[in-house]
Recover the amino acids of this structure.
Protein backbone atom coordinates (compact mmCIF):
# COMPACT_ATOMS: atom_id res chain seq x y z
CA UNK A 1 0.00 0.00 0.00
CA UNK A 2 1.30 3.44 -0.90
CA UNK A 3 1.37 6.47 1.33
CA UNK A 4 -1.53 8.75 0.62
CA UNK A 5 -1.03 12.35 -0.50
CA UNK A 6 1.98 14.13 -1.94
CA UNK A 7 5.29 13.91 -0.11
CA UNK A 8 5.90 17.54 -0.99
CA UNK A 9 2.63 18.87 0.41
CA UNK A 10 3.52 21.99 2.41
CA UNK A 11 6.92 22.36 0.76
CA UNK A 12 6.29 25.94 -0.36
CA UNK A 13 5.23 26.98 3.14
CA UNK A 14 8.40 25.56 4.68
CA UNK A 15 10.62 27.17 2.02
CA UNK A 16 9.10 30.62 2.53
CA UNK A 17 9.33 30.39 6.33
CA UNK A 18 12.95 29.20 6.30
CA UNK A 19 13.87 31.77 3.68
CA UNK A 20 12.45 34.58 5.77
CA UNK A 21 14.29 33.21 8.81
CA UNK A 22 17.58 33.15 6.89
CA UNK A 23 17.18 36.58 5.38
CA UNK A 24 16.37 38.23 8.71
CA UNK A 25 18.83 36.33 10.89
CA UNK A 26 21.82 38.11 12.38
CA UNK A 27 24.04 35.19 11.42
CA UNK A 28 23.21 35.64 7.74
CA UNK A 29 23.88 39.36 7.89
CA UNK A 30 27.32 38.83 9.40
CA UNK A 31 28.18 36.20 6.78
CA UNK A 32 26.96 38.42 3.96
CA UNK A 33 29.02 41.39 5.07
CA UNK A 34 32.05 39.17 5.49
CA UNK A 35 31.69 37.88 1.96
CA UNK A 36 30.86 41.22 0.37
CA UNK A 37 33.72 43.11 2.03
CA UNK A 38 36.40 40.54 1.35
CA UNK A 39 35.21 39.92 -2.19
CA UNK A 40 35.12 43.63 -2.97
CA UNK A 41 38.62 44.02 -1.60
CA UNK A 42 39.74 41.24 -3.93
CA UNK A 43 38.02 42.82 -6.91
CA UNK A 44 39.43 46.23 -6.19
CA UNK A 45 42.90 44.76 -5.99
CA UNK A 46 42.29 42.87 -9.23
CA UNK A 47 41.14 46.03 -11.01
CA UNK A 48 44.19 48.03 -9.98
CA UNK A 49 46.36 45.15 -11.13
CA UNK A 50 44.61 44.84 -14.48
CA UNK A 51 44.85 48.55 -15.13
CA UNK A 52 48.63 48.44 -14.82
CA UNK A 53 48.94 45.73 -17.42
CA UNK A 54 46.45 46.72 -20.07
CA UNK A 55 47.29 44.05 -22.56
CA UNK A 56 45.44 42.97 -25.64
CA UNK A 57 43.55 40.34 -23.67
CA UNK A 58 40.30 39.39 -25.43
CA UNK A 59 38.89 38.21 -22.11
CA UNK A 60 39.87 41.20 -20.03
CA UNK A 61 36.60 41.18 -18.12
CA UNK A 62 37.06 37.61 -16.92
CA UNK A 63 40.38 38.63 -15.38
CA UNK A 64 38.28 40.47 -12.77
CA UNK A 65 37.38 37.09 -11.33
CA UNK A 66 40.75 35.42 -11.44
CA UNK A 67 43.45 38.08 -11.05
CA UNK A 68 45.10 38.11 -7.66
CA UNK A 69 47.33 40.77 -6.21
CA UNK A 70 49.61 39.72 -3.41
CA UNK A 71 48.89 39.30 -0.58
CA UNK A 72 45.16 39.08 -1.39
CA UNK A 73 43.79 36.04 -3.21
CA UNK A 74 41.60 36.53 -6.29
CA UNK A 75 37.82 36.90 -6.17
CA UNK A 76 37.45 33.24 -7.13
CA UNK A 77 39.95 32.25 -4.48
CA UNK A 78 37.94 34.12 -1.86
CA UNK A 79 34.69 32.55 -3.01
CA UNK A 80 36.03 29.00 -2.99
CA UNK A 81 36.95 29.63 0.64
CA UNK A 82 33.94 31.63 1.85
CA UNK A 83 31.07 29.92 0.02
CA UNK A 84 31.50 26.68 2.02
CA UNK A 85 31.70 28.72 5.22
CA UNK A 86 28.45 30.48 4.38
CA UNK A 87 26.68 27.28 3.34
CA UNK A 88 27.79 25.50 6.50
CA UNK A 89 26.66 28.52 8.50
CA UNK A 90 23.20 28.18 7.01
CA UNK A 91 22.85 24.43 7.32
CA UNK A 92 24.62 23.15 10.42
CA UNK A 93 21.63 23.58 12.74
CA UNK A 94 18.80 23.04 10.24
CA UNK A 95 17.31 19.93 11.83
CA UNK A 96 18.89 19.67 15.28
CA UNK A 97 17.72 23.17 16.20
CA UNK A 98 14.14 22.00 15.62
CA UNK A 99 14.84 19.12 17.98
CA UNK A 100 16.42 21.36 20.59
CA UNK A 101 13.66 23.98 20.41
CA UNK A 102 11.20 21.08 20.67
CA UNK A 103 9.32 22.32 17.63
CA UNK A 104 9.93 19.24 15.49
CA UNK A 105 7.16 16.98 16.81
CA UNK A 106 4.70 19.88 16.80
CA UNK A 107 5.47 20.73 13.17
CA UNK A 108 5.46 17.10 12.06
CA UNK A 109 2.06 16.55 13.71
CA UNK A 110 0.67 18.92 11.09
CA UNK A 111 -0.51 17.28 7.86
CA UNK A 112 2.88 17.25 6.08
CA UNK A 113 5.51 14.58 5.53
CA UNK A 114 9.07 14.83 6.78
CA UNK A 115 10.18 15.05 3.16
CA UNK A 116 8.64 18.49 2.83
CA UNK A 117 10.41 19.79 5.94
CA UNK A 118 13.89 18.59 4.97
CA UNK A 119 13.65 19.46 1.28
CA UNK A 120 12.10 22.83 2.14
CA UNK A 121 15.00 23.64 4.42
CA UNK A 122 17.50 22.67 1.73
CA UNK A 123 15.76 24.70 -0.97
CA UNK A 124 15.50 27.72 1.33
CA UNK A 125 19.22 27.51 2.12
CA UNK A 126 20.07 27.19 -1.54
CA UNK A 127 17.78 30.11 -2.42
CA UNK A 128 19.45 32.25 0.23
CA UNK A 129 22.88 31.39 -1.16
CA UNK A 130 21.68 32.09 -4.70
CA UNK A 131 20.35 35.50 -3.74
CA UNK A 132 23.55 36.55 -1.98
CA UNK A 133 25.82 35.16 -4.70
CA UNK A 134 23.80 36.78 -7.48
CA UNK A 135 23.95 40.13 -5.72
CA UNK A 136 27.67 39.74 -5.26
CA UNK A 137 28.07 38.79 -8.92
CA UNK A 138 26.09 41.83 -10.08
CA UNK A 139 28.13 44.09 -7.81
CA UNK A 140 31.30 42.73 -9.32
CA UNK A 141 30.11 43.24 -12.90
CA UNK A 142 28.96 46.76 -12.07
CA UNK A 143 32.28 47.65 -10.45
CA UNK A 144 34.12 46.22 -13.42
CA UNK A 145 32.07 48.28 -15.86
CA UNK A 146 32.68 51.49 -13.94
CA UNK A 147 36.33 51.04 -13.12
CA UNK A 148 37.58 49.29 -16.24
CA UNK A 149 35.40 51.15 -18.69
CA UNK A 150 35.41 48.16 -21.02
CA UNK A 151 32.05 46.53 -21.76
CA UNK A 152 32.17 42.73 -21.53
CA UNK A 153 31.48 40.70 -24.64
CA UNK A 154 28.54 38.34 -24.90
CA UNK A 155 30.75 35.32 -24.44
CA UNK A 156 32.38 36.80 -21.37
CA UNK A 157 28.94 37.39 -19.84
CA UNK A 158 27.93 33.83 -20.69
CA UNK A 159 31.06 32.45 -19.04
CA UNK A 160 30.57 34.66 -16.01
CA UNK A 161 26.97 33.46 -15.73
CA UNK A 162 27.98 29.80 -15.91
CA UNK A 163 30.51 30.55 -13.20
CA UNK A 164 27.66 31.93 -11.04
CA UNK A 165 25.59 28.76 -11.54
CA UNK A 166 28.56 26.56 -10.72
CA UNK A 167 29.24 28.53 -7.54
CA UNK A 168 25.63 27.97 -6.46
CA UNK A 169 25.99 24.24 -7.12
CA UNK A 170 29.22 24.30 -5.09
CA UNK A 171 27.32 25.95 -2.22
CA UNK A 172 24.69 23.21 -2.56
CA UNK A 173 27.26 20.50 -1.80
CA UNK A 174 28.36 22.09 1.45
CA UNK A 175 24.79 22.88 2.42
CA UNK A 176 23.82 19.24 1.93
CA UNK A 177 26.84 18.13 3.97
CA UNK A 178 26.00 20.55 6.78
CA UNK A 179 22.37 19.39 6.79
CA UNK A 180 23.42 15.74 6.87
CA UNK A 181 25.35 16.38 10.07
CA UNK A 182 22.53 18.49 11.47
CA UNK A 183 20.41 15.34 11.22
CA UNK A 184 23.08 13.01 12.60
CA UNK A 185 24.17 15.10 15.59
CA UNK A 186 21.68 16.33 18.14
CA UNK A 187 24.04 19.07 19.30
CA UNK A 188 24.40 21.98 16.88
CA UNK A 189 27.93 22.73 18.09
CA UNK A 190 29.08 19.16 17.34
CA UNK A 191 27.47 19.28 13.91
CA UNK A 192 29.17 22.61 13.11
CA UNK A 193 32.58 21.43 14.29
CA UNK A 194 32.41 18.15 12.39
CA UNK A 195 31.27 19.87 9.18
CA UNK A 196 33.95 22.56 9.48
CA UNK A 197 36.53 19.87 10.15
CA UNK A 198 35.55 17.95 7.04
CA UNK A 199 35.60 21.15 5.02
CA UNK A 200 39.12 22.04 6.20
CA UNK A 201 40.26 18.51 5.52
CA UNK A 202 38.81 18.39 2.00
CA UNK A 203 39.79 21.94 1.03
CA UNK A 204 43.23 22.24 2.58
CA UNK A 205 44.70 18.88 3.53
CA UNK A 206 43.30 16.49 0.93
CA UNK A 207 44.81 18.19 -2.17
CA UNK A 208 48.31 17.88 -0.71
CA UNK A 209 47.66 14.41 0.70
CA UNK A 210 46.44 12.84 -2.53
CA UNK A 211 49.84 12.79 -4.36
CA UNK A 212 51.39 11.02 -1.37
CA UNK A 213 48.54 8.53 -1.31
CA UNK A 214 48.87 7.99 -5.05
CA UNK A 215 52.57 7.15 -4.71
CA UNK A 216 51.65 4.57 -2.11
CA UNK A 217 48.83 3.16 -4.21
CA UNK A 218 50.75 2.82 -7.49
CA UNK A 219 53.43 0.25 -6.74
CA UNK A 220 54.95 0.26 -10.23
CA UNK A 221 56.00 3.89 -9.79
CA UNK A 222 54.84 4.67 -13.33
CA UNK A 223 54.80 8.44 -13.46
CA UNK A 224 51.73 8.92 -15.65
CA UNK A 225 49.63 6.45 -13.63
CA UNK A 226 50.72 8.09 -10.40
CA UNK A 227 49.74 11.55 -11.63
CA UNK A 228 46.37 10.35 -12.88
CA UNK A 229 45.68 8.48 -9.64
CA UNK A 230 46.62 11.55 -7.61
CA UNK A 231 44.27 13.67 -9.68
CA UNK A 232 41.42 11.18 -9.32
CA UNK A 233 41.91 11.10 -5.57
CA UNK A 234 42.04 14.89 -5.37
CA UNK A 235 38.77 15.09 -7.28
CA UNK A 236 36.99 13.42 -4.37
CA UNK A 237 37.06 16.87 -2.79
CA UNK A 238 34.39 19.31 -4.02
CA UNK A 239 36.94 22.10 -3.67
CA UNK A 240 39.14 20.48 -6.31
CA UNK A 241 36.18 20.02 -8.64
CA UNK A 242 35.18 23.66 -8.20
CA UNK A 243 38.74 24.83 -8.86
CA UNK A 244 38.93 22.79 -12.07
CA UNK A 245 35.58 24.06 -13.34
CA UNK A 246 36.63 27.65 -12.70
CA UNK A 247 39.86 27.03 -14.56
CA UNK A 248 38.03 25.68 -17.61
CA UNK A 249 35.25 28.26 -17.67
CA UNK A 250 37.09 31.46 -16.76
CA UNK A 251 40.33 30.69 -18.66
CA UNK A 252 39.15 30.00 -22.20
CA UNK A 253 42.61 28.80 -23.21
CA UNK A 254 42.33 25.75 -20.94
CA UNK A 255 42.22 22.69 -23.19
CA UNK A 256 42.19 19.90 -20.68
CA UNK A 257 42.05 19.42 -16.95
CA UNK A 258 44.15 16.27 -16.91
CA UNK A 259 47.67 15.54 -18.03
CA UNK A 260 48.38 16.35 -21.69
CA UNK A 261 50.00 13.83 -23.97
CA UNK A 262 52.15 14.97 -26.82
CA UNK A 263 49.91 13.50 -29.51
CA UNK A 264 47.00 15.57 -28.20
CA UNK A 265 48.92 18.72 -28.99
CA UNK A 266 49.30 17.91 -32.68
CA UNK A 267 47.60 20.59 -34.71
CA UNK A 268 46.66 22.60 -31.66
CA UNK A 269 47.21 26.35 -31.79
CA UNK A 270 48.86 27.08 -28.48
CA UNK A 271 47.23 29.84 -26.50
CA UNK A 272 44.16 30.03 -28.71
CA UNK A 273 40.92 30.20 -26.70
CA UNK A 274 38.31 27.44 -26.93
CA UNK A 275 34.73 28.29 -27.82
CA UNK A 276 32.34 28.40 -24.87
CA UNK A 277 30.65 25.09 -25.65
CA UNK A 278 34.03 23.33 -25.72
CA UNK A 279 35.06 24.89 -22.40
CA UNK A 280 31.85 23.66 -20.82
CA UNK A 281 32.51 20.25 -22.29
CA UNK A 282 35.97 20.20 -20.71
CA UNK A 283 34.47 20.93 -17.29
CA UNK A 284 31.30 18.84 -17.74
CA UNK A 285 32.39 15.79 -15.68
CA UNK A 286 33.33 18.09 -12.81
CA UNK A 287 29.99 19.93 -13.00
CA UNK A 288 28.08 16.65 -12.95
CA UNK A 289 30.30 15.52 -10.09
CA UNK A 290 29.38 18.54 -7.98
CA UNK A 291 25.65 18.07 -8.56
CA UNK A 292 25.89 14.34 -7.91
CA UNK A 293 27.73 15.00 -4.65
CA UNK A 294 24.94 17.26 -3.40
CA UNK A 295 22.30 14.71 -4.34
CA UNK A 296 24.18 11.90 -2.59
CA UNK A 297 24.70 13.93 0.57
CA UNK A 298 21.09 15.09 0.60
CA UNK A 299 19.81 11.53 0.16
CA UNK A 300 22.04 10.43 3.05
CA UNK A 301 20.52 13.13 5.26
CA UNK A 302 17.04 12.24 4.03
CA UNK A 303 17.36 8.56 4.94
CA UNK A 304 18.79 9.40 8.35
CA UNK A 305 15.98 11.89 8.98
CA UNK A 306 13.24 9.47 7.97
CA UNK A 307 14.51 6.88 10.42
CA UNK A 308 15.03 9.29 13.26
CA UNK A 309 12.94 9.39 16.41
CA UNK A 310 10.81 12.51 16.63
CA UNK A 311 10.76 12.83 20.37
CA UNK A 312 13.19 15.17 22.02
CA UNK B 1 -20.48 4.13 24.60
CA UNK B 2 -20.45 6.29 21.49
CA UNK B 3 -18.46 5.41 18.39
CA UNK B 4 -14.73 5.30 19.21
CA UNK B 5 -12.57 8.01 17.60
CA UNK B 6 -9.29 6.36 18.57
CA UNK B 7 -8.85 2.63 18.73
CA UNK B 8 -5.73 0.67 19.60
CA UNK B 9 -5.60 -3.09 19.39
CA UNK B 10 -2.56 -4.90 20.70
CA UNK B 11 -0.36 -1.92 19.84
CA UNK B 12 3.29 -2.90 20.24
CA UNK B 13 6.58 -1.04 19.82
CA UNK B 14 9.91 -2.79 19.99
CA UNK B 15 13.35 -1.19 19.96
CA UNK B 16 15.71 -4.02 19.18
CA UNK B 17 15.08 -6.53 21.92
CA UNK B 18 13.50 -4.03 24.31
CA UNK B 19 9.73 -3.67 24.20
CA UNK B 20 8.58 -0.13 24.96
CA UNK B 21 4.87 -0.73 24.41
CA UNK B 22 3.56 -4.26 24.78
CA UNK B 23 0.15 -5.10 23.34
CA UNK B 24 -1.80 -2.05 24.44
CA UNK B 25 -5.53 -1.98 23.62
CA UNK B 26 -7.92 0.84 24.40
CA UNK B 27 -10.40 3.09 22.72
CA UNK B 28 -11.42 6.70 23.15
CA UNK B 29 -15.08 7.52 22.61
CA UNK B 30 -16.43 10.65 21.04
CA UNK B 31 -16.48 13.65 23.37
CA UNK B 32 -14.66 11.84 26.15
CA UNK B 33 -11.48 12.70 28.04
CA UNK B 34 -9.30 9.63 28.28
CA UNK B 35 -6.21 9.65 30.46
CA UNK B 36 -3.09 7.58 29.92
CA UNK B 37 -1.50 7.62 33.32
CA UNK B 38 1.66 6.09 34.59
CA UNK B 39 5.25 6.70 35.58
CA UNK B 40 7.80 8.18 33.19
CA UNK B 41 9.08 5.64 30.72
CA UNK B 42 5.96 3.48 30.91
CA UNK B 43 5.32 3.86 27.17
CA UNK B 44 2.73 6.64 27.12
CA UNK B 45 4.53 8.96 24.70
CA UNK B 46 5.49 6.08 22.41
CA UNK B 47 1.84 5.03 22.26
CA UNK B 48 0.84 8.59 21.36
CA UNK B 49 3.51 8.86 18.65
CA UNK B 50 2.31 5.60 17.10
CA UNK B 51 -1.27 6.91 17.03
CA UNK B 52 -0.02 10.01 15.18
CA UNK B 53 2.04 8.06 12.68
CA UNK B 54 5.22 9.75 13.91
CA UNK B 55 6.76 6.45 14.92
CA UNK B 56 6.62 3.00 13.29
CA UNK B 57 4.26 0.42 14.72
CA UNK B 58 5.96 -2.92 15.43
CA UNK B 59 2.77 -4.86 15.98
CA UNK B 60 -0.96 -4.51 16.48
CA UNK B 61 -3.24 -2.00 14.94
CA UNK B 62 -4.24 1.62 15.46
CA UNK B 63 -7.21 3.47 14.01
CA UNK B 64 -7.96 7.17 14.26
CA UNK B 65 -11.36 7.97 12.73
CA UNK B 66 -10.97 4.69 10.90
CA UNK B 67 -7.65 5.75 9.32
CA UNK B 68 -4.46 3.80 9.77
CA UNK B 69 -1.84 6.30 11.02
CA UNK B 70 1.03 4.31 9.51
CA UNK B 71 -0.47 4.38 6.02
CA UNK B 72 -2.61 7.50 5.95
CA UNK B 73 -0.75 9.86 8.27
CA UNK B 74 -1.97 13.00 6.52
CA UNK B 75 -5.64 12.05 6.98
CA UNK B 76 -4.96 11.38 10.66
CA UNK B 77 -2.89 14.50 11.23
CA UNK B 78 -5.49 16.71 9.57
CA UNK B 79 -8.04 15.83 12.26
CA UNK B 80 -5.84 15.44 15.30
CA UNK B 81 -4.29 18.25 17.29
CA UNK B 82 -1.13 17.28 19.15
CA UNK B 83 0.53 19.02 22.04
CA UNK B 84 3.93 17.40 22.70
CA UNK B 85 5.59 17.10 26.07
CA UNK B 86 7.17 20.52 26.87
CA UNK B 87 6.15 22.01 23.56
CA UNK B 88 8.42 24.47 21.75
CA UNK B 89 7.83 27.39 19.45
CA UNK B 90 10.06 29.58 17.30
CA UNK B 91 11.28 32.05 19.90
CA UNK B 92 12.12 34.82 17.45
CA UNK B 93 8.58 34.91 16.04
CA UNK B 94 5.49 36.36 17.69
CA UNK B 95 2.65 34.17 18.94
CA UNK B 96 0.60 35.17 15.90
CA UNK B 97 3.41 34.44 13.45
CA UNK B 98 4.01 31.02 15.00
CA UNK B 99 0.33 30.15 14.56
CA UNK B 100 0.39 31.69 11.09
CA UNK B 101 3.11 29.24 10.02
CA UNK B 102 1.14 26.27 11.36
CA UNK B 103 -2.06 27.59 9.80
CA UNK B 104 -0.40 27.56 6.41
CA UNK B 105 0.99 24.07 6.96
CA UNK B 106 -2.50 22.90 7.89
CA UNK B 107 -3.82 24.57 4.76
CA UNK B 108 -6.29 27.01 6.32
CA UNK B 109 -7.42 29.34 3.50
CA UNK B 110 -5.71 32.75 3.51
CA UNK B 111 -8.98 34.61 4.03
CA UNK B 112 -9.78 32.76 7.26
CA UNK B 113 -6.33 32.62 8.84
CA UNK B 114 -6.31 35.98 10.58
CA UNK B 115 -9.72 35.54 12.14
CA UNK B 116 -9.10 31.94 13.24
CA UNK B 117 -5.79 32.83 14.86
CA UNK B 118 -7.34 35.77 16.73
CA UNK B 119 -10.23 33.60 17.93
CA UNK B 120 -7.94 30.80 19.05
CA UNK B 121 -5.70 33.20 20.98
CA UNK B 122 -8.76 34.71 22.63
CA UNK B 123 -9.98 31.25 23.66
CA UNK B 124 -6.76 30.58 25.58
CA UNK B 125 -6.58 34.16 26.86
CA UNK B 126 -3.41 35.14 25.05
CA UNK B 127 -4.87 37.98 22.97
CA UNK B 128 -2.86 40.66 24.80
CA UNK B 129 0.47 39.04 24.01
CA UNK B 130 -0.44 38.03 20.44
CA UNK B 131 2.21 40.33 18.98
CA UNK B 132 4.91 39.53 21.55
CA UNK B 133 7.78 37.21 20.69
CA UNK B 134 7.33 33.73 22.08
CA UNK B 135 10.85 33.94 23.55
CA UNK B 136 9.37 36.11 26.32
CA UNK B 137 6.62 33.60 27.18
CA UNK B 138 6.45 31.55 30.36
CA UNK B 139 6.10 27.78 30.22
CA UNK B 140 2.39 28.03 30.99
CA UNK B 141 1.83 30.52 28.18
CA UNK B 142 3.57 28.22 25.71
CA UNK B 143 1.31 25.34 26.77
CA UNK B 144 -1.69 27.58 26.22
CA UNK B 145 -0.35 28.66 22.84
CA UNK B 146 -0.11 24.97 21.92
CA UNK B 147 -3.77 24.60 22.89
CA UNK B 148 -4.57 27.63 20.72
CA UNK B 149 -2.96 25.80 17.83
CA UNK B 150 -5.30 22.84 18.40
CA UNK B 151 -8.30 25.18 18.63
CA UNK B 152 -7.27 26.94 15.42
CA UNK B 153 -6.91 23.60 13.66
CA UNK B 154 -10.56 22.71 14.48
CA UNK B 155 -9.19 19.35 15.55
CA UNK B 156 -11.79 16.73 16.45
CA UNK B 157 -9.35 14.95 18.72
CA UNK B 158 -6.70 16.58 20.88
CA UNK B 159 -3.78 14.48 22.06
CA UNK B 160 -2.04 16.16 24.96
CA UNK B 161 1.23 14.71 26.22
CA UNK B 162 1.92 15.70 29.83
CA UNK B 163 -0.02 18.96 29.55
CA UNK B 164 0.50 20.00 33.16
CA UNK B 165 4.10 18.88 33.45
CA UNK B 166 6.31 21.56 34.97
CA UNK B 167 3.49 24.04 35.55
CA UNK B 168 2.89 25.77 38.86
CA UNK B 169 -0.44 24.88 40.55
CA UNK B 170 -2.18 28.04 39.35
CA UNK B 171 -1.09 27.59 35.74
CA UNK B 172 -2.01 23.92 35.70
CA UNK B 173 -5.48 24.66 37.07
CA UNK B 174 -5.94 27.23 34.29
CA UNK B 175 -4.80 24.71 31.73
CA UNK B 176 -7.15 22.02 33.05
CA UNK B 177 -10.00 24.55 32.81
CA UNK B 178 -9.09 25.15 29.18
CA UNK B 179 -9.04 21.41 28.57
CA UNK B 180 -12.55 21.14 30.03
CA UNK B 181 -13.67 23.99 27.75
CA UNK B 182 -12.18 22.14 24.82
CA UNK B 183 -14.19 19.07 25.76
CA UNK B 184 -17.32 21.15 26.11
CA UNK B 185 -16.88 22.31 22.53
CA UNK B 186 -17.10 18.69 21.39
CA UNK B 187 -13.45 17.71 21.12
CA UNK B 188 -12.42 14.23 22.26
CA UNK B 189 -9.25 14.32 24.31
CA UNK B 190 -6.51 11.81 24.96
CA UNK B 191 -4.07 13.02 27.58
CA UNK B 192 -1.10 11.48 29.27
CA UNK B 193 0.31 12.36 32.64
CA UNK B 194 2.28 11.09 35.57
CA UNK B 195 0.66 13.63 37.90
CA UNK B 196 -2.28 11.53 38.95
CA UNK B 197 -4.19 13.87 41.24
CA UNK B 198 -4.02 16.77 38.80
CA UNK B 199 -5.67 14.98 35.92
CA UNK B 200 -8.06 12.89 37.97
CA UNK B 201 -10.53 15.75 38.00
CA UNK B 202 -10.77 16.05 34.21
CA UNK B 203 -10.63 12.46 32.99
CA UNK B 204 -13.78 10.49 32.22
CA UNK B 205 -11.83 7.26 31.94
CA UNK B 206 -8.24 6.41 32.60
CA UNK B 207 -5.76 3.69 31.72
CA UNK B 208 -2.94 3.07 34.17
CA UNK B 209 0.28 2.22 32.36
CA UNK B 210 3.03 0.18 33.79
CA UNK B 211 6.12 -1.07 31.94
CA UNK B 212 4.50 -0.82 28.50
CA UNK B 213 1.23 -2.47 29.44
CA UNK B 214 -2.13 -1.20 30.58
CA UNK B 215 -2.48 -2.38 34.16
CA UNK B 216 -5.96 -1.01 34.86
CA UNK B 217 -8.58 0.75 32.81
CA UNK B 218 -11.95 2.30 33.57
CA UNK B 219 -13.52 5.25 35.35
CA UNK B 220 -11.90 6.37 38.57
CA UNK B 221 -14.88 4.99 40.50
CA UNK B 222 -14.59 1.60 38.83
CA UNK B 223 -10.90 1.40 39.56
CA UNK B 224 -11.57 2.42 43.14
CA UNK B 225 -14.03 -0.41 43.56
CA UNK B 226 -11.69 -2.87 41.93
CA UNK B 227 -8.51 -1.97 43.74
CA UNK B 228 -9.53 -0.34 46.98
CA UNK B 229 -12.68 -2.39 47.43
CA UNK B 230 -15.21 0.42 47.47
CA UNK B 231 -13.67 3.75 46.76
CA UNK B 232 -16.11 6.16 48.42
CA UNK B 233 -15.96 6.95 52.09
CA UNK B 234 -18.96 8.77 53.57
CA UNK B 235 -18.51 10.39 56.94
CA UNK B 236 -21.63 10.96 59.00
CA UNK B 237 -21.91 12.93 62.22
CA UNK B 238 -25.22 12.72 63.99
CA UNK B 239 -26.74 13.34 67.38
CA UNK B 240 -29.26 10.98 68.87
CA UNK B 241 -30.89 8.30 66.77
CA UNK B 242 -31.01 4.69 67.70
CA UNK B 243 -29.01 1.83 66.34
CA UNK B 244 -27.39 3.89 63.59
CA UNK B 245 -24.45 1.57 63.00
CA UNK B 246 -26.75 -1.34 62.22
CA UNK B 247 -28.92 0.78 59.95
CA UNK B 248 -25.89 2.00 58.00
CA UNK B 249 -24.58 -1.53 57.68
CA UNK B 250 -27.88 -2.68 56.21
CA UNK B 251 -27.81 -0.09 53.40
CA UNK B 252 -27.16 -1.69 50.00
CA UNK B 253 -23.72 -0.81 48.64
CA UNK B 254 -22.05 -0.31 52.00
CA UNK B 255 -18.98 -2.45 52.52
CA UNK B 256 -18.14 -1.58 56.06
CA UNK B 257 -19.10 0.75 58.88
CA UNK B 258 -16.80 1.97 61.60
CA UNK B 259 -17.49 4.34 64.44
CA UNK B 260 -14.49 6.61 64.57
CA UNK B 261 -15.66 8.26 67.78
CA UNK B 262 -19.04 8.42 69.49
CA UNK B 263 -21.48 10.11 67.13
CA UNK B 264 -19.25 9.87 64.05
CA UNK B 265 -19.29 7.01 61.55
CA UNK B 266 -17.25 6.23 58.53
CA UNK B 267 -18.96 4.25 55.77
CA UNK B 268 -16.98 2.64 52.97
CA UNK B 269 -19.34 2.41 49.99
CA UNK B 270 -19.31 1.46 46.33
CA UNK B 271 -20.89 4.76 45.30
CA UNK B 272 -21.85 8.11 46.73
CA UNK B 273 -24.42 7.14 49.40
CA UNK B 274 -24.63 10.46 51.24
CA UNK B 275 -28.35 10.95 50.58
CA UNK B 276 -29.19 7.43 51.76
CA UNK B 277 -27.13 7.84 54.90
CA UNK B 278 -28.87 11.12 55.67
CA UNK B 279 -32.25 9.47 55.19
CA UNK B 280 -31.27 6.69 57.61
CA UNK B 281 -30.26 9.20 60.30
CA UNK B 282 -33.57 11.03 59.96
CA UNK B 283 -35.54 7.78 59.94
CA UNK B 284 -33.82 6.74 63.18
CA UNK B 285 -34.91 9.99 64.75
CA UNK B 286 -31.42 11.45 64.90
CA UNK B 287 -30.17 14.92 63.95
CA UNK B 288 -27.65 15.07 61.17
CA UNK B 289 -24.83 17.49 61.98
CA UNK B 290 -22.29 16.77 59.28
CA UNK B 291 -22.02 14.75 56.11
CA UNK B 292 -18.95 14.52 53.90
CA UNK B 293 -17.55 12.39 51.08
CA UNK B 294 -14.01 11.25 50.29
CA UNK B 295 -13.75 10.32 46.63
CA UNK B 296 -11.34 7.58 45.67
CA UNK B 297 -8.06 9.11 44.65
CA UNK B 298 -6.07 7.82 41.72
CA UNK B 299 -2.99 8.27 43.82
CA UNK B 300 -4.33 5.74 46.34
CA UNK B 301 -5.51 3.38 43.64
CA UNK B 302 -2.20 3.54 41.89
CA UNK B 303 -0.07 3.08 44.95
CA UNK B 304 -2.25 0.27 46.27
CA UNK B 305 -2.33 -1.50 42.92
CA UNK B 306 1.41 -1.53 42.50
CA UNK B 307 1.97 -2.52 46.10
CA UNK B 308 -0.28 -5.52 45.44
CA UNK B 309 1.47 -6.19 42.15
CA UNK B 310 4.84 -6.16 43.87
CA UNK B 311 3.59 -8.52 46.51
CA UNK B 312 2.39 -10.82 43.76
CA UNK B 313 5.73 -10.60 42.00
CA UNK B 314 7.53 -11.41 45.19
CA UNK B 315 5.30 -14.38 45.87
Amino acid sequence: MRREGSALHGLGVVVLKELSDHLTSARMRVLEWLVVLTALAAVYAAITEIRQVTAQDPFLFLRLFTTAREPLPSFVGFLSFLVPLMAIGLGFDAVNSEHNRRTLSRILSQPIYRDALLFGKYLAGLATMSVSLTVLWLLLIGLGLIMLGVPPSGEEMARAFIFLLVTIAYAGVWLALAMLFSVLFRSAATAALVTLGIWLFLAVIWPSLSPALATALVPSGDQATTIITAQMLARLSPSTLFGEIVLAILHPTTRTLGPVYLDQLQGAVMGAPLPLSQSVLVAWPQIVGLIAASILLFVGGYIAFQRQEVRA
Amino acid sequence: MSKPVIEAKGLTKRYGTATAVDGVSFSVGEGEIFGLLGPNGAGKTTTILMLLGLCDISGGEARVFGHNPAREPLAVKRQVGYMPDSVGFYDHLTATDNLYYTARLIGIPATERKQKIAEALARVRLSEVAEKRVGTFSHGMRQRLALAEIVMKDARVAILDEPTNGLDPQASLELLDLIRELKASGVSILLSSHLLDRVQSVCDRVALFNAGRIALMGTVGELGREVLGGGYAVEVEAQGGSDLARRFGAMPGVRSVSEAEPGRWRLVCESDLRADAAAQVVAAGGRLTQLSLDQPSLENIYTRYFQNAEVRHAA
Q: What stands out?
A: The first helix of chain A runs from residue 11 to 24. The two ends of chain A are 30 Å apart (CA to CA). Chain A touches chain B through 26 residues (CB under 8 Å).
